[in-house]
Amino acid sequence: MAQPERTTQPEWASLTETQRHRWRAVLRCLAEVVPAGAAVTVDGVGAEVFAERLAAVASASAVVAGAAGRRAAADVVVRLRGGPPGADRAEPADVVVDLRDPAWPVIRHVSNRLAAADSWHRTESRAFFAAKAATWDSRFGDDLPAYAAAVADAGFRPGGLLVDVGCGTGRALPALRTAAGPDGVVVGLDLTPEMLAEARARSVTEHAALVLADACRLPFANRAADGVFAAGLLMHLPDPDAGLRELARVTRPGGLLVLFHPTGRAALAERHGRTLRPDEPLAEGPLRASTERTGWHLTRYDDAPARFLAVARRSEP
């Protein structure tokens, strides 16, 4: 039987103090959500080292690196997502940890049976994006024309309130200002202070407000917004239906929701080394069903190689 791979995990001594703090935070979080006395199996590239580190802080009866047969006997399965394309497993897991940057682990999923999303999701999302904020535009700055085209194609009505939920560094703000017109209001909202700091210059130029807030708990009154733009947001939410329902709450009847990504789903899945599944939240069937049950009506679905664009209209209550 092949032994679990150790080489993708950095040695503790090679980490900076900031990176060690991140590792400790993730391990502490997992130690809190794993029931005392549980049997834990860790799957994925680097599982042996991760299992050793988790065992040192968790009160589990056993924490072992994954092997055939151990998963069936495990009370909790932890899957490590990372490594070369094709290394990730598609099987369900109770916990998913993103280790594409092995020095900066981020929890991407925790089963509801172990912990409520509020107990871990905001902290982990901030950790994931805070580390990337300073270099985000240098890596993805070429996407600006795609953002402009998506906003222009959406058909937002000028003169209203347009909200960019999960605005990141503010790449959509110029296009949203154009769509809103001189009498409209544009707001960029994000959970990560470091992302908003990078967005500040664009917000000043485009006369847009910036708000630090959670997409799952928007600081707007019912029916306040005329349109919502969300780039790459849905897959980062712990409960996509709950997120769509919250977006619907703050949008007036007839208002628009635009879900966008500057890369199509298939190309993005290939980039991340995973298999595209028909049951994913952004697949057409599941998205059409979830928008209908959360107060939206999907009017456009475009999943081309170069971009993903879905437009939904807020239903009458």
Task: Provide a compact summary of the structure.
This protein is α/β, with parallel strands linked by helices and 317 residues long. Helix content is 34%, strand content 23%.
- Low-confidence runs (pLDDT<50, min 5 residues)? 1-7, 84-88
Secondary-structure element order, as H and E? HEHEHEEEHHHEHEHEEHEHHEE
| Helix coverage percent | 25-40%
Physical arrangement of strands within the biggest beta sheet: 8-7-6-9-10-12-11
Number of strands: 12
Distance between the termini: 58 Å
* Main sheet characteristics: 7 strands, mixed
Provide the gyration radius in Å: 21 Å
The percentage of residues in β strands lies in: 15-25%
With helices defined by DSSP (H or I, 4 residues minimum), what is the helix count?
11
Gross geometry: globular
Mean pLDDT: 89
Structural write-up:
A 7-stranded mixed β-sheet has the order 8-7-6-9-10-12-11, with helices on both faces. Strand 4 (95-98) and strand 5 (106-110) form a beta hairpin. It is globular, with a radius of gyration of 21 Å. The protein has 11 helices and 12 strands. By secondary structure, the protein is an alpha/beta fold. The chain starts with 16 loop residues before the first helix and ends with a strand. It has helices spanning 17-33, 47-55, 70-73, 121-130, 133-140, 144-154, 173-180, 193-205, 240-249, 265-271, 284-293; strands at 39-43, 62-65, 76-81, 95-98, 106-110, 161-165, 185-190, 209-212, 225-231, 251-261, 296-303, 308-314.
